[in-house]
Automatic annotation (TrEMBL):
It comes from Gracilinema caldarium (strain ATCC 51460 / DSM 7334 / H1) (Treponema caldarium). Residues 193-251 form the tRNA nucleotidyltransferase/poly(A) polymerase RNA and SrmB- binding domain. One of its GO terms (molecular function) is poly(A) RNA polymerase activity. This is Poly(A) polymerase. The lineage of its organism: Bacteria, Pseudomonadati, Spirochaetota, Spirochaetia, Spirochaetales. PANTHER family: POLYNUCLEOTIDE ADENYLYLTRANSFERASE FAMILY PROTEIN. Belongs to the tRNA nucleotidyltransferase/poly(A) polymerase family. The keyword Nucleotide-binding applies. Pfam families: PolyA_pol, PolyA_pol_RNAbd. The keyword Chloroplast does not apply. Its EC number is 2.7.7.19. One of its GO terms (biological process) is polyadenylation-dependent RNA catabolic process. Residues 355-389 are annotated as: Disordered. It comes from the Bacteria. Residues 51-165 form the Poly A polymerase head domain.
Amino acid sequence: MRFRYSTDERGRPVKKAIVYTSDEHHINSFDVDIEAVRIVGRLKQAGHESFIVGGAVRDLIVGKKPKDFDIVTSASPSQIKRLFRNARIIGRRFRLVHVYVGDTIYEVATFRSLRDGHNGNTYGTIEEDVLRRDFTLNALFYDPKEQVVVDYVEGFKDIKTRLIRPIIPLSVMFKDDPVRMLRAVKYAATTGFRLSLPLRWKIKQQAHLLDTVSPSRRTEELFKIINSGNSFAIVDQLLKFSLYQYLQPNAVSMMSSDAKFKNLYMQSLLALDQLIKCGKELQSGEVISYFIRDYLNTIVDWKQEPFEAYRAALTACRAYVLPMNPPRIELENAVRLLFREHGIGIKKARTFEKGRNKEAIPEPANEATQVPGSQGPKKRRRRRKNKPT
Ligand code: ATP
Ligand code: MG
């Protein structure tokens, strides 16, 4: 174990961070994305500090393959942009850089400062940056060339003892950003780590702050959850912490009055997780279809004229998923997929492209047809039976 030092006001060295070497952190360098290593390398070569940071380091330490690699650096956005051919500065408030390599986007952020609080928009040092991160397990820096983990907050120890502990003081943590409550519970569900007692207590006390979060941010969080491949475990935990009602109030109220509905809902999430985990390419609307299918089955009168039934179901589902506001075409495709499972084909609205505008226009004579060879409701039952429990 080594240490990183900085100096105090009188110029004396002060221990600031623990540095773990590869025999201590045991990160398998083959699990580290080669392009992320290249990006960090180029930044360092140009004289800047740079690390892989956040969830990727956490996942590498627990031996899980990270889903993305975020990079942090002392270089400013314009300095970063100059170093990469395929890079774009994004964000109006806090600018960061997207580096494009093939189909993958690497997010490269400049260290943030604490000057104007934990949510401010000024650039700072690594020592300030670490204090703006939400939990210790997300605040480790990995240098892939030296193969060391730099730890300012005892996050490595917390990962080893399976503890989720806040960095930002709890007095401002959730007031500044209530979404951090969802993040805490999400990490507990996906890692199996326990939340520290003060953290649990604060979440119970301040859950209501999630009401103040914009629908678009809530939609974004919910989308991350349902696309994670762990939606069953995450939603289960969010329900236990009484947080899911801020994402899906209608579903929660149906679940609390109908245990059978809750069971079906959770089974659908489990089936969705399996689908995502096996890496199958999903079509537009497919993820959402798992998410609304049990509701849709309670409201649709399958004997109704099909297109009328489809239109009514679409309207009802749009209201059901509020405050989530999924792209219109995704929801339409989801409802269409579910009708297809019942043997009813609803023709897609015609789309036309003009310049860069892509817009879906409803066809006046949207047709409803029986899907050839479909077995109607029977097929659906078979699907249910096959769902893992
Ligand atoms: P995931 O595996 O879901 O991507 P992650 O930890 O990488 O998890 P990101 O949303 O990708 O999460 O964020 C990257 C890092 O940025 C986090 O690990 C954390 O250090 C920091 N971070 C993100 N959102 C917040 C927030 N709301 N408050 C404080 N720090 C945050
Ligand atoms: Mg991430």
